[in-house]
Design a protein that fits this description.
It is a single chain. The chain is 50% helix and 7% strand. It has 261 residues and is mostly helical. It has a domain at 2-150. A 3-stranded antiparallel beta sheet has the order 1-3-2, with no helix packed on it. α2 crosses α7 (143-169), α3 crosses α6 and α4 (68-99) packs parallel to α7. Residues 186-221 have a biased composition (Low complexity). Residues 248-261 have a biased composition (Basic and acidic residues). Residues 167-221, 234-261 are annotated as: Disordered. Residues 175-185 have a biased composition (Pro residues).
């Protein structure tokens, strides 16, 4: 049963054609998808030493048109490429986790495990069958593209968050409340039988000049016009975006559109 499950999942995952109904199919969101790619490709790379003896036997038994040496040369190259891709995926995952306003690493870790799970049972399946499946497997073709897009968007979002945080700290500080001045010392008054306290005359409030009253009624200056709600951001020269980002094409180039929330 374990072998049958492993074979079914691995076959479904070949060339990125994993069935959406598969329990280990990649999720649809960009961050989870890249994390899944990392797990699947990492599992593939970790099997290299285990499968290569059988892969070599198969290539010698069924040589290709360019010969055995040419066929066997491709596998170290595939492993090297897998290591490079894993670094790209890891960089994108890290950038997304740093830019996210909420913790997402636990979810990412679960998707890494789901991706690696397509190789479950590799230790118990027939070595010839495992080698054949390993030789024919490749990660989904859009893993690298989606990883680079994820890192680019995360970088712009991170800059926007830092920009907003810096703007908040540079705002003018609140005016401190004035400290009341100490009351003047009372001057003692000689007590005489004839002395009577004069009634206190309330001070009149200063009359506001007519000119000041006119100025106070003047209409306030018009507010600055609202900025355009769409800003095109060139991925080659990213700028902070305080809104949401959406991929788009402008003049045949891949860009991101910054839309105000």
């Amino acid at each position: 049963m374990a072998n049958a499950l492993f074979l079914a999942l691995a076959l479904l995952a070949q060339d990125g054609q994993a069935s959406p109904q598969s329990p280990n199919a990649p999720p649809s969101d960009e961050y989870g998808y890249v994390a899944w790619c990392y797990g699947a490709l990492g599992g593939y790379a970790s099997l290299y030493d285990q499968v290569m003896p059988e892969v070599t036997r198969i290539e010698k038994a069924f040589p290709g048109p360019d010969g055995v040496a040419a066929s066997l040369k491709t596998y170290p190259e595939l492993r090297a490429q897998a290591q490079k891709d894993l670094k790209i995926f890891a960089s994108a995952i890290t950038a997304a986790e740093k830019a996210s306003p909420r913790p997402i690493s636990e979810y990412g870790g679960s998707q890494v495990k789901r991706g690696a799970a397509i190789w479950q049972g590799a230790g118990s399946v027939d070595k010839a069958r495992l080698a054949q499946m390993w030789m024919s497997w490749s990660p989904p073709g859009d893993c690298e593209k989606r990883a680079k897009t994820l890192e680019m968007k995360s970088s712009i979002l991170g800059r926007a968050l830092n920009f907003n945080a810096a703007s908040a700290t540079t705002q003018a500080p609140a005016t401190p409340e004035p400290t009341p001045a100490p009351a003047p010392a009372e001057t003692p008054v000689a007590e005489t039988p004839q002395a009577q306290a004069a009634p206190a005359t309330p001070a009149k409030a200063p009359t506001q000049p007519a000119q000041a009253r006119k100025l106070s009624k003047a209409p306030s200056a018009k507010a600055a016009p609202v900025a355009a709600n769409e800003i095109i951001i060139d991925p080659a020269n990213p700028k902070p975006c305080a809104g949401s980002l959406a991929p788009a094409k402008r003049d045949g180039k891949d860009v991101l559109i910054c839309k105000a929330d």
